[in-house]
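help with this:

***
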Amino acid sequence: MGFRLPSSVRYLPRRAHIFSTAAVVYAILKITQLLNRAFRRNEEQCDNAWIKANTRAAEQILRTSTARRGLWIKCCQYVAARSDALPPEYSTVLSKSLDDCPPTPPVQVIETVTNQLQETPFGIEFQSKNGRLVTISDVFEGFDPARPIASASIAQVHVATLKTSGQRVVLKVQHPGIRPMLLQDLQDLKTLLTWIAGAEPKYDMRPVLDAWIRMVPLETNFLNEMANLQAVKTTLSTAPDHLMADAYVPEPMPHLTSDKLFVMEYIDGCKVTDIETIDKYSVNRDELITNITRSFGNQLFVGHVFSGDPHPGNFLIHELEDGGVPVLLDFGICVKVEEDVRCGFARLILAAIDNDSYSIVKALSEVGVNLNRADPTASLDIIKYLFRTTAPQEESRKEQNAMKEKLEKNNSQMERNARDTPIHQVFADEPMPEDVEKPGKRESRSPVDSFPGDLVFFFRSLGMLRGLAVKMDVRHSYLDVLRPFAEHAIKVSCPEQDQMKEVVYRPVFTSGRFDALTAARVLQRVFHILHEKEMMIGMQVAAYKNGKLVLNIASGQRGRYDLRPVTTKSLFNSFSSTKGLTAILFASLQDDYDVQYHDLVTKYWPEYGQNGKESTTIAHILSHSAGLAQALPEDMNMLRLRDDWKGIIEHLETSRPAHVPGERSEYHVLTFGWLVAGLIMKITGHTYQNHLRKLVKEFGIEDECFCGTMPEDLLPDVSGSRVASLSSSIINDIQRGPIGKAIAHVKTGNCSNKKYDSKDKTSKAAEDIGGVRNPQEEAKAILNNLNVPATGLSQAPAYLLDLNFFNHPVLRAGFVPSANGHFTARALAMLFAAVGNKGAVDNKELLKPDRVEKMQQMFCKIDPEGRRAWGAGVTLYDTVDKSGKLTKHGAIGHGGIGGSFAFAVPSEKFSMAVTLNKLNALSVSSAVAIVVVCRIMKIPMPVWYHDFGKLIMKTLKEDGPVELESEAAVMEKLFRSGGESDLMKMLIG
């Protein structure tokens, strides 16, 4: 064996060339930057200078990469595919690297093909039969080693004809010595990136290379590539009909394939980037991109494997005369994903489509990315930007610049959010949870360094789809194309035995009363209609009469993408219905401690009497008149919300009211619960949670009623969890849907205001970056600009304005006794059953009889007509019976944003609760359920629901089942005839 130099010496000239090129590129860019500053060039002059500099830098990179081939060609290919991510000069110049590498000399090609043929199954059999080694001429005709049809980073491709059949085939021949060279290149690239990370830590991309290092050796094994190709081909041909992709994978020749030689059928066609030829044959570019996207969705979500090294050079367009069919090539790097990661990718796609920030965070966690726990919204702009709809090149550059400006503007805030806020102290009489990070713990982390390899390849594939669409000048919503594939992945991941079988969960409980039985039968028909029209996801309805449960029914599934059925034991976050629980809990303690409504708060809570709050009474707090609607602590991140009880109380003690206590009522969306909980602790010496645990245990609902007390096994959306996942469309309803159009009509007198036209997909509705909407910013805009009375939400942290974030385990465990109660409908109905039955339920006294009467005392009006008013922490509603008789404040209860509602009618000893997980600004499903039960059981109902229900029934009768196809149609019809809307009724129930 001849002497070989060590690789460190053998590759020294190559490495010197690479590092010197990096120095030259750095110098070009740095000098341009300095000259722009020194000569104070204007914007146009700077742009021209950067165009020249980027072109020179790209040409330098291309020359070196072309000479050195290997990994550097692959880097060029990736950059060339990202027309949207880098200045266009790089894409234009580096696109020449796609399949234009210097070919291997013919002598070496002949040597490689001959040697590899002898190792194939055909070559081994040939030698056994003929007593000699196989040669190229024994297998192929027309093979020209000097004329490859393409030459890329790993191999080059030749065309030949099989002697036995006359079939044309391609031979993918590996460049000699490519494997050790690639490994050395990877190490050099990692060194370069280490230098960059040292100069600019936030650009530390080294973790991305870890995945490449693992995958590159596989790419140099053509037997592995053939297995990948066969897997993809099988998936494409056996997928369900609605998931088929009009794409083709060449047929491999296993008997002629070895480690360094891959033979497959020859497919004629043009490059996907050959726009001139594509247009010559009038091929629809959008359909072409759609089919390529569908093939990717098929690989990832149906076949569990996808190409991890895509670039435009790996696609041909075949059958141009018949409209064009994409041909998929090169499966050297394929990512095989586990079931949980595949579902994580699917949920990431669906969350991006739904603009659901929390689900994005959750899906990232499932695939191994953990964003900052204190405020996970901090890094979401980048993720959403990656998922935006593709746009033509000029528009794409504008999007890129807008995103850059936005990130620079928010950089300091993101850095603050990257550090956990210190936790002051947890609940006074309860231990600190073991998983809470201790005060002072700081951890700085680049957004990239937590990305696992699979996710890097996933985003790279999406980047290729985006870059290809930009290059072909196509506006392409690849997320919409991928949706059915992602939904399929979620569905098959849920065992069939666990999936919802019927819309209504069995058994349905009724007490045997004829009216309850009738209501149950009608509700079952209603639930089927609501589910068919997608007006509900999951829902529970429960009712008590004379202190006894008479109806308990559940329907639907636990989440939009959680196919498990809702049962009567499923838990729902009912938002402000939690205020009803808080008010009842406080009322249950008042008589034991002789607390009067006219008592000053300082009688029990001396520290509260600061900064103009000295005159605040118990009644002011219970009627939302304390003036602290906006008094939210700063830096209210999730961990502080869950654990910093002392800090929140101290903040309320020192806050200055917005007005003299009692002067007017402003809805205390969040602060109400903390104020009442603070009173409970100061009056009794024990926490709200301790009193709640005692109450729910006494009345047998300890596993159906939680607020800051939820056990850990219920927090995640796992197999054993009973918690329903929330899906909020409130922002869309108000800003873009029929409700938005009604608001526009009220504000402008023109119902066709384009900004709110839900049918106009190119309207102002998609004005955010790349069409990706920001629900938190939209919520603030709505609260600030649509005449909603002050609520405190406009000052809330971003994650609290996106109701989907209440799916977050930290928020579910958070102590927010205004908005974070988790209930079954039975538990809520039971609590209000005591209010409706002189304080007793199930033959147990929860409240003193006269306390119920005092809770119904009106402290102030909510609306000018006085049809709704504040009692002792609950809402008083005018009621109307079937005959139209009106009763002033005949019902007492509280609604929650999105549609949950619980109330009692004391005159009828009746109570009812509705819980649901599809949150709408106006919930048709909730209103219909209340109207059905109350009408059949002859119970007076709140006027709002009575009127709304009449409007719904009228709409249903007018349109009938044929024309009425969606919730949006119902809402639009309602608002067309319903006149001006009352936003407070929509937002707080």
The two ends are 86 Å apart (CA to CA). The longest strand covers residues 548-559.
